[in-house]
Structures are given as structure tokens and as C-alpha cells.
Amino acid sequence: MTTEMSDEEVSAIREVWIRAKTDNVGKKILQTLIEKRPKFAEYFGIQSKQRQSLVLTQKLKAHRIQNFLDTAVGSLGFCPISSVYDMAHRIGQIHFYRGVNFGADNWLVFKKVTVDQVTTGATDSSKEKDETNSSGTANGKVETEANLIPIADINNVYSGENCLARLGWNKLMTVIVREMKRGFLEEAMRNCKEEDNNGLLGA
To answer: Which of 75, 103, 156, 179 is deepest in the core (most CB within 10 A)?
Structure first.
């Protein structure tokens, strides 16, 4: 799949981001990452035993996630896409120096969680659907030939895999994760070479 975004996809990315960033999406991404992979709490340094310190750390990390995505989205269409690459590349380098060694599966989890949380359309203020409504659905689901589909997925314009906004965000996060990984690995290789050279000089 090409990662080049069309003008329509960029517009869809911006539109869905306007809604997401007003709904604490950074916090949602962080919480979901930790729920899916508790190890992420260690990666983000959220291990304090003091409750007040823990809350402040979580807010800071969530703010950083959301602020980076906001900057990346704000750059689309106004700055060369290389500016987004450079930001992601730098974050990858920072992760190396902080000792955050993501495995390949964790990069994929980060990408999927971000795309899902930004494009779900769910909000903190949204209320649960009635268990039964006038259309004949029951228990919050509607029956199809294959299975039962949650009402939220039918009413949510952002839920489909072929949705323009979801495709656009998937492409954006693909290049962001790719450049973060590249920055991390390049820095790791550079440091390995420096250590080898220092070892030869000290021999």
C-alpha cells in the first residue's frame, strides 16, 4: 500500500483530528497502550508509587503524544511531508537514549491503537445506546447474515476499514512509525560503531 496521501485523505485526517484532540485522545492512546501492553507503562516511565506523581507523569506523557500528533497533522499540506519524517525520526533517536527498546510488535500496537483511538468517533461525553430501539435492534447490536454488529460500528462514520479518514490516518501513522524505527535503529548502529572504535583505540 502506498503511503502517499491524497488531498482528500489529508482533509479527512484534519477533520477527524479536530474532534479527537478536543476529547483527550492523547490520554486515551496512552491508557489503551498500557491496557494492551502493561510494559508500555515502563517505557513511558509511569512507575511512580506516589499517586500525585503518577497522575502528573501520565498527563505529561499523554500531552506529549497529543502534541506531537497535533504538530504532525498541522504540518500536512503546509510543510513538506519530510518535516513530519524529521520529527518522527528525532523521536526515535530520543527513545534510544532513554533506553526504550520497542520490539516490532510494540511499534505495530502503537500504530493500531493510535489509528483506532483517533478514528473511532467515540467521545467522553457520549452515552450508551438504548438496549432496544425502534429499528428492532436488541442488546446494543443488530443482526446481519454473518453475525451481530455493534450499533456503534454502524452509526460511526469512522469505523469502516475503507473509510477515507481511517485510510489517511493509517498511512500517516505508517510513515511516522517507520521514521521512528529508523531513527532508533540508526542511532543504535551509530553507537555500536563508536563503541567498537573506542574498543580498538583502547586495545
So the answer is: 179
The model carries a pTM of: 0.71
Q: Which amino acid is at 78?
A: F
Nearest residue to 68 (alpha-carbon basis) of 118, 108, 125: 118
Number of domains, the chain: 1
How far from 19 is each of 14, 24, 57, 161, 189, CA to CA, in Å?
A: 9, 10, 24, 19, 40
* Domain CATH code at residue 54: 1.10.490.10
Is residue 138 situated within a structural domain? no
Q: What is the pLDDT of residues 103-139, one digit of tens each?
A: 778 889 999 999 999 998 543 333 343 333 434 444 4
Q: State pLDDT tens for residues 14-37.
A: 999 999 999 999 999 999 998 998
* The three cell numbers locating residue 200: 580498538
Burial of 106 by CB count in 10 Å (0-12 exposed, 13-18 middle, 19+ buried)?
middle
Match 442488546 to its residue by C-alpha cell: 139
